[in-house]
Structures are given as structure tokens and as C-alpha cells.
Specification:
Number of domains: 2
Distance between the termini: 44 Å
Number of strands: 12
Strand order of the largest sheet: 2-1-3-4-5
Helix content: 40-55%
Structural class: alpha/beta
Radius of gyration: 18 Å
Largest sheet: 5 strands, parallel
Number of helices: 8
Strand content: 15-25%
Shape: elongated
Length: 237
């Protein structure tokens, strides 16, 4: 089945360049130049993955709003920000909105295609897991309850809305705590994302978001500890 990708980019030449490259790799690509055009199309049908610029014409945060809309419609839909805005705060905000990745232009086609293939594979694996979920996938760690197949997480009986990548990182920390009582290295967390090339600071940003989501439910949450020179450790039984 042909997979669908949406590109929301106000620069016609850049949009067409990436779209044609993706079409050459067998994807069905829809192109939109602004927020209004994109959301009107998404009201009819959602893509399987979206690539967003942040500034769309005079709409300086239009891409953020498109991401917010997509996450409200389907929190499992992979979103990649592809933008010239390289400020760390922009990146953090984009990931907080639920984007799976944030790349600063220019990005090689080869790199972008690998990221897309990886994210679509993760999305399919997650969909398959939900389809076959069962009671045997439930685990409890004190106040934490997770279903590893459905990728659902509850803390003190309240759901923690983690992205698939965040859930994978949490699962890696829990597995290490259960098997060895130790932390998990950044390298192993990178592998846990199943996203290929991932920077160390991206892992740190994801951990920051996981902590914030737990603290939104429980302001006293302190279960994820930083192990300097190693990585991170789940420290609650």
C-alpha cells in the first residue's frame, strides 16, 4: 500500500524538491503552502506522516499550529519539523507539541528519507502492537502501570500521554531497573528509539519532556535520575 506524506512549506522550490524526491521513493505526497490550506485538506483525510516548516508566509508560527492540530486529531501521527529556525527553544517547543523530530535546514535527501522510513516503521509496529494487545502486556512498578503492547502508561491511576518515542525510552529504563537494578546508557536509549541517527541532546530533551509529563500529574515525581557519565535510571519500585 502506498504511504501518504504531507509537506507544509511556503517556499515552492524547496517544497517541490522534497516532494519529488519522496515521490521517486514511492510515497504519495501532498503539498501545502500555508496553515489554512493544510488544515482544510487534513479535515478530509490525514496523511500517515507530515513534514512541517514553522514559518508559513506571514504566519510565523503556522507550523506549530498545524502540529498542534494533527496531534489533537491523531497523537500517533509522526510529525517532522524541517525548518531554518535552529534556536534550541524552537526545537524544545516543537518536540513538546508532540513532533517526533526537528531538523534544521539544509538536510540531505538521504538523511530525510531514512528518518521517514524509520518513523513509518515505528508507527506500523505500534499499530500492530495495539491490535494484539493483551493482559499479559500489563506491568506494574509501584505507582506506575504500563501496557507495553498498547504503549499506554498510567501514574497513580492517571494516564501519562507519552509519545511512542518517549514510551520506548521509559520502557528501556524500566527494563534496566528490573533486570540489573542499574541505569541505561545514552547509547542504549538511542537504540531504544529505533530511529537510526539520534543526537545525545535529543535524548536529553525527550527525558525532559517525560519528566514534565509525570510532574504534571505528580509534582513530587522524582523517579528518573540522571547518572552522569552513563545515562538515566528509573529509581522507583
Amino acid at each position: 500500500m502506498i504511504q501518504t506524506i504531507a509537506i507544509v512549506e511556503d517556499d515552492r522550490d524547496q517544497r517541490h524538491y522534497y516532494a519529488e524526491a519522496l515521490r521517486a521513493h514511492g510515497y504519495e505526497v501532498s503539498e501545502y503552502e500555508d496553515r489554512e490550506q493544510a488544515i482544510a485538506a487534513f479535515e478530509q483525510a490525514l496523511p500517515e506522516l507530515a513534514i512541517l516548516d514553522i514559518a508559513l508566509k506571514t504566519d510565523v508560527g503556522g507550523g506549530y499550529e498545524v502540529c498542534r492540530y494533527l496531534q489533537q486529531r491523531d497523537a500517533t501521527l509522526p510529525v517532522i519539523f524541517l525548518t531554518s529556525r535552529g534556536d534550541e527553544l524552537d526545537k524544545i517547543y516543537g518536540l513538546q507539541l508532540g513532533a517526533w523530530d526537528y531538523q534544521t535546514k539544509p538536510v540531505s535527501l538521504e538523511f530525510l528519507i531514512v528518518r521517514i522510513e524509520s518513523f513509518l516503521q515505528i508507527k506500523q509496529l505500534n499499530s500492530n502492537a495495539v491490535a494484539v494487545k493483551g493482559e499479559d502486556a500489563n506491568q506494574r512498578f509501584g505507582d506506575l502501570k504500563i501496557n507495553s503492547r498498547a504503549m499506554v502508561c498510567h501514574w497513580k491511576d492517571q494516564e501519562v500521554n507519552l509519545t511512542p518515542t518517549e514510551f520506548s525510552l521509559l520502557q528501556a529504563m524500566l527494563d534496566a531497573a528490573h533486570e540489573t537494578g542499574q541505569g541505561v546508557s545514552v547509547d542504549d536509549l538511542i537504540k531504544a528509539t529505533r530511529q537510526g541517527i539520534v543526537e545525545e541532546n535529543t535524548i536529553s530533551t525527550h527525558i525532559l519532556h517525560i519528566r514534565k509529563k509525570f510532574k504534571k500529574i505528580d509534582t513530587d515525581f522524582q523517579c528518573i535520575k540522571t547518572r552522569y557519565g552513563l545515562g538515566y535510571q528509573w529509581m522507583c519500585s
